[in-house]
């Protein structure tokens, strides 16, 4: 299984370039596509799901250009769009049965597949509940189930954890990891913790462009030597935020423990170098330079 994205560019009506010369080759496993709001993730997902065509560039699924011949990809695609709409009057079971028939599943195999999937997303007891009366998290799980109906070889999920509580989130990540052995899974999100545990590879996107792609360890290595911690009085925090990129703060009895990102030298005399986390690497790659010329703005330039 192979999805090749070659120099993909997508301009929206009105000229907004949402995806810009994006190139990536995907194999089975979970790719975490990480980027801030507006990075172009949903547009890219929509092109890959053949909802919209690229302006230029090509996407090949198993060697076939999906713009010229979308059939092979569509037959094996599972897609959970960001703006996943449901019919509020239908029950989960009815909704999934309707989509199963649209996807060409026979009545018998649809029935057993739906029962299996409702179990997988922990909704067996809610099978007969109307979608309109479900919580956002429950509806999202129905969305995940519908994306899996045809046992897809390419599974695209766009911001799937929105509306899920922490336990559902974890369940969902485990579910994705379990599915990825023999399929290409693309998980698009702006939440670093979604990809930190579930993704084999991470692509970081901003402004329509692919900034970095690699295994989580490779991205962590990029931030090595750039992550510092120091405890400061809490009234210094606003000034530090002006001067440095700050990836986290924790209140302690002695003040605030601050995590600062700066390559090369300690941002404060008492700062200690610490192990980077994915949040740090992501912030270093995607943040606009902070105020001071010696801040992470320079480190960004070094990392790119
Ligand atoms: N239909 C459209 N017409 C014009 N511009 C659009 C359209 N859809 C998206 N855009 C613009 O394209 C850019 C990328 O949007 P996109 O939704 O793909 O990003 P995203 O990374 O998925 O962000 P979000 O998570 O906020 O949806 C944004 O600047 C957005 O305003």
From TrEMBL:
Keywords: ATP-binding, Nucleotide-binding, Transport. PROSITE patterns: ABC_TRANSPORTER_1, ABC_TRANSPORTER_2. Pfam families: ABC_tran (PF00005). It comes from the Bacteria. Residues 3-232 form the ABC transporter domain. The keyword ATP-binding applies. The keyword Transport applies. GO terms for molecular function: ATP binding. Belongs to the ABC transporter superfamily. This is ABC transporter ATP-binding protein. It comes from Streptomyces coeruleofuscus.
């Amino acid at each position: 299984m192979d999805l090749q994205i070659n120099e993909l560019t997508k301009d929206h009506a009105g000229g907004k370039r949402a995806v810009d010369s994006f190139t990536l080759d995907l194999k089975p496993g979970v790719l975490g596509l990480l980027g801030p709001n507006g990075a172009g993730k949903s547009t890219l997902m929509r092109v890959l799901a053949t909802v919209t065509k690229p302006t230029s560039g090509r996407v090949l699924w198993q060697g076939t250009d999906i713009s010229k011949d979308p059939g092979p990809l569509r037959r094996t695609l599972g897609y959970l769009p960001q703006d996943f709409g449901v019919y509020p009057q239908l029950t989960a079971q009815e909704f999934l049965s309707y989509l199963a028939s649209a996807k060409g599943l026979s009545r018998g195999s649809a029935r057993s597949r739906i029962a299996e999937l409702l179990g997988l997303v922990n909704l067996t007891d809610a099978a007969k509940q109307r979608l309109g009366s479900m919580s956002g998290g429950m509806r999202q799980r129905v969305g995940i189930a519908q994306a899996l109906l045809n046992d897809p070889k390419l599974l695209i999920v766009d911001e799937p954890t929105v509306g899920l509580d922490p336990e559902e989130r974890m369940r969902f990540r485990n579910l994705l990891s379990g599915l990825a052995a023999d399929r290409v899974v693309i998980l698009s999100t702006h939440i670093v913790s979604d990809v930190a545990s579930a993704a084999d590879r991470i692509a970081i996107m901003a402004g329509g462009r692919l900034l970095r792609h690699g295994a989580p360890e490779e991205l962590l290595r990029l931030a090595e030597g750039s992550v510092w911690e120091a405890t400061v009085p809490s009234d210094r925090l606003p000034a530090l935020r002006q001067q440095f990129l700050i990836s986290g703060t924790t209140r302690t009895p002695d003040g605030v423990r601050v995590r600062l990102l700066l390559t090369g030298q300690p941002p404060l005399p008492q700062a200690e170098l610490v192990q980077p986390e994915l949040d740090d690497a992501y912030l270093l790659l995607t943040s606009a330079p902070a105020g001071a010329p010696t801040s992470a703005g320079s480190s960004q330039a070094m990392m790119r």
